[in-house]
Amino acid sequence: MRIKGLKLSIMFVVVIALGAAAGACGSDGNDGSDGNECAPGTVEVDGQCVPFCSGTEYWNGSECVAGLACAPGTVEVGGQCVPFCSDTEYWNGTDCVSAPACAAGTVLNATTGECEPACADGTYWTGTACADLPTCGDGTEFNVATSECEALCAPGTFWDTTTETCLDACGEGTVLSDGVCLPWIDVVESDSVEPAENNDAMMGGMPGMLTVPAIDVSTVLEGIIDSPTDLDGDGHDDADYDTWYFSATQGTRLRIEGWADGVFNVATLLIGASEDESNWWYQRYGLNPDSPESERDFVIPMDGEYLLAVTDFSNLTGDIPVGGPEMGYFVNITQVLNPDPIAGTAGTPQTGSAFDIDQVTYTGTAGELWDVTIDSWGADTYGIMAVHKASGDFMQQLEGVDCSGSACQPEGLTGGLKFTMPMADDGGIVFTADYKYRSGSGGDYGFTVQPNPNVEVLDVDVSIAVHNEDLLSSEGEIIYQIDVVGGNLYRIAFENLGTDVTASLYATLHDFDFNILRDADTEYDEAPWEFNIYAEVDARYYIRVIDRHQEAGSDYTYDLRVSSWIVENLGTLDAINTSITRAGAGPVAAAGDEFWFVSTVDQAAEITGTFTPTAIWNLDFEIYNTDVQRIDLFASEGDGEAETLRGISAAGTYLFRAYESGMDAGDATYTFDIDFTYEEVRQEVEPNGSEADAQEIVLDYNGVGELANLDSEFDEDYYSFTLTADVAVTAETYPELGGSVDTMLWIYAPGFTPADDNPFCDTAECLAYNDDGGEGLFSLIDGVLLTAGTYYLRVRTFALGSNGYYGLRVSATEVICNSGETRCSTVDVNILETCNAGGTAWDESTCLHGCDDSSGTAVCGSTPVDETEPNDDLANADVISFPYFGSGQITLNDMDYYMFTLPSDGIVVIETDVFADDPVIVDTRLRLYASDGTTQLEYDDDDGNGRYSYIEISLTAGDYYVFINAWSSQVGFYTLSVSF
Questions:
Q1: How far apart are CA 244 and CA 222, in angstroms?
Q2: What is the Cα–Cα distance from 579 to 174, expressed in whole angstroms?
């Protein structure tokens, strides 16, 4: 932390010298009589006559101050009660010893016991001569015994120059600066000031950038919690959050202090983002409802990007946002040393204060299950723990519940809040005993970590029947461990056989990290609970059984079985291995028999799979993903007929299941043949539901897509393509894979807005549209003239109920003008233009709007603009003056800079808009920079007309830079106005 023109100091204090206090005994008795030519009521101390102090006081060098109440016959010397010495003795620090008879002109030094020359007032005996007493600084006095200026104040206190007394500490809201308690707001200097609003990254704003300081080094942020504004456009004002982004490594410990410069309670929030930044998985709050200041430590759980937000306490906890220009703040961030973890003992409760954020480590056997039971965390504290491997890798987060003063007892668990997790594969786990937030002064924690005593190893292909009325009476659960073999498929069947109507068993399937993969409730009279898992590699799974209601005496009877199948690997289908055949793949001997196969497809392809029975029986055929979620069922061909799959498959691994659905037990053995063929195909790749996610294709394109609408939302597919020359483009949808979907088809220029309510072209960016011009209800856009550039295709259904596959072809034909022929104008497809020069093609370099022959009907020539290229950097910025209205052009990856000088303070309006001579919409982005060309004062994207930009800002007189570019790879023209 830096101080404005001052230096924070800590004053160290030593005990007042014994010699200065020893005179409190006097050298002539304790009755005030003069033993060394001092006036009545005074005594001689270090060659000077000073007031005599009572038995409950002592002389501190300048006055009598309260001291110890000493017993009769003793006096206080140096803060201790010692025996009183007679007129002919003095205290040498240990005993009363005889004092020598000093000659005239000398006095006794009560510290050394020697006679020294009597020095004049203002001087003292140095041991060899009389010397002038020096002038000591504030809060110190001269000790003749040590010949040094020594502090007046005891350790832990400091000398206040205003009151000239020793104080314990500065008052709230003040800090010590060169011996003076000053308001902290007057002495703190910030290292970084909040960027221009909106800087709330959670509301789409641009946060400030923060660098984590080194250990024991601080950095100070400064800002204002502004008045609430509507940031998300929902009609309601949003609280102001000032945010800073920073990168940090796992284990970094940050101490973050917030101080309010106004009537509010400053609060901080530290959050961490997953790869999907909308999921803020890590949240820690620094709150203090009772003070305008807040302080807490934050321990970074894993390497990554984090966001620090600052706001008012009530904005985090209340319903009505607050803020205003008077609500300033400073936030001091210090990296402190993160101590080594404490060694915990399994089964022994671990206690401490969450505000210290202890880290506790346990060791055990890799893979065994351990229980973590949180016994307490304080009724006003939301406890939370991050769990790491001993190596430091993050494992998971154990998040508690707000107990609100009552016991934390989730349904199905006894005691406190209980978690089950495996010991890490490196044999160690580290718990960070943290808290999410607190609403009071509580926070002491207690938790216990120990191996789970209720884990049983379950044999595969063995059915177990469990009957145990006391199943859940103690630990509340049974966990079964299953070790699976890679390449096999396993089916887990669980059935509640109890007859007690109150018994509701809850069974869950977990992976090695004890994450839940499947879960289900089973009442006593419900059908069995069943699901499959495919083990691609050797692995361990767990099945956990608990009772939802914890009914004592309930009849807990259930049947649990794990069955397995060897999955035959059919190999990989690709451009080289286009066919797989298996003859006699059975046998299927009875109803319910089934066989599993797996195959990998190297890229999107059309797969034809045929399962042919060798006898007259009804074969069913299903396809699954590796999560064993069924993708499709083929079972409609009847007895003795082959079941055939034909469809487009994305790259990946697929499981196939074949079984006989109608055979009775005891029927003869049957076999079946398998045949797979592979044909490469271009396929739609999701997500492609917007311009930003459009799938890029290359002409000539022929592929397959699927429209799968939800009940209330259309599935739309977007494709983009780029033309290098002016051509006529044809796009059409057609039937594919048995699809009969009713399609609609559009072609757009960049920056378009889909016309959801009106399916026809009703915007300047819509260049062509068709509904039913193709085969049946499919669509056809035939020969629309397009200049070089990027365009977008949009495909959707006419109605929500019309779902299915479609084929898509997109092709281009070069446009040739023959003398005397006509063609559609690119300005308006309803206007015919005459071509005078035979054999010529459309050429944008010579003619933007018309035939390349300048004698043709259309007027040739490029569109003039006011912008002067090159103006892609500050040095070449176009200089403009007020008021300015002009035009410019954005080419691919183009940047346009303008510079203006503001003659006086005032409000400046900067705006881009559509260029009338070329009405293609360009999505502009607008930035305003200070005179250095790097300090961004304001940014805007779409606050202007449509997708154009608008900035209104109050500025002081001076030079400024305007920066304009386009979103993504858009190109086109724009107008720029700057007014003052």
A1: 11
A2: 82
Instruction: Give the number of other Cβ atoms within 10 Å of residue 570's Cβ.
Output: 20
Q: What angle (nearest 5°) sits at the alpha carbon of residue 778, between those of residues 813 and 757?
A: 100
Q: If you ran DSSP here, which 8-state letter would residue 317 be given?
A: H
For residue 588, give the DSSP letter: B
What is the Cα–Cα distance from 310 to 330, expressed in whole angstroms? 10
pLDDT, tens digit, for every residue of 629-680?
A: 887 777 656 667 777 776 656 678 888 888 777 654 444 455 667 776 776 6
How many Cα atoms are found within 13 Å in the side-chain-facing hemisphere of 71? 2
The angle subtended at Cα 504 by Cα 499 and Cα 510, nearest 5°, is: 130
* pLDDT score at 548: 60
pLDDT in tens, 519-551: 776 655 566 778 889 998 998 898 888 766 555
Q: How far is CA 513 from CA 132, 539, 675, in A?
A: 80, 11, 39
> Considering all CA atoms of the chain, what is the largest pairwise distance in Å, rounded to the nearest integer?
141
DSSP secondary structure letter of residue 31: S
Length of the chain: 980
Reported as type and span, the H/E element at residue 420 is: strand 417-422
Coil/strand/helix, residue 304 = strand
Picking from 964, 955, 832, 844, the residue whose alpha carbon sits closest to that of residue 896 is: 964
| Residue-averaged pLDDT of the chain | 75
Q: What is the DSSP pairing of strand 174-177 with strand 180-183?
A: antiparallel
Q: Which of 560, 587, 556, 582 is nearest to 571 (CA)?
A: 582
- The H or E element spanning position 56 is none
In the predicted structure, residue 815 carries a pLDDT above the cut 80: no
Q: What is the pLDDT of residues 169-210, one digit of tens each?
A: 566 556 666 666 776 666 778 899 999 999 998 888 889 999
Q: Which of 351, 311, 540, 344 is nearest to 450 (CA)?
A: 344
Cα–Cα distance, 479 to 458 (Å, whole number): 9
* Bridging pattern class, strands 48-51 and 643-649: unpaired
What is the residue whose two structure tokens read 């890798």? Answer: 393
Sort strands 74-77 and 80-83 into parallel, antiparallel or unpaired: antiparallel
For the sheet containing 727-734, what is the strand order? 682-683, 701-707, 804-814, 727-734, 780-786
- pLDDT, one tens digit per residue, over 669-678 is 556 677 767 7
3-state secondary structure of 186: helix
- Higher pLDDT, residue 75 or 493: 493
**pLDDT tens-place string over residues 253-291:** 999 988 887 657 889 999 986 544 445 668 898 887 777
Which H or E run includes 432?
strand 428-438
Residue type, 90: Y
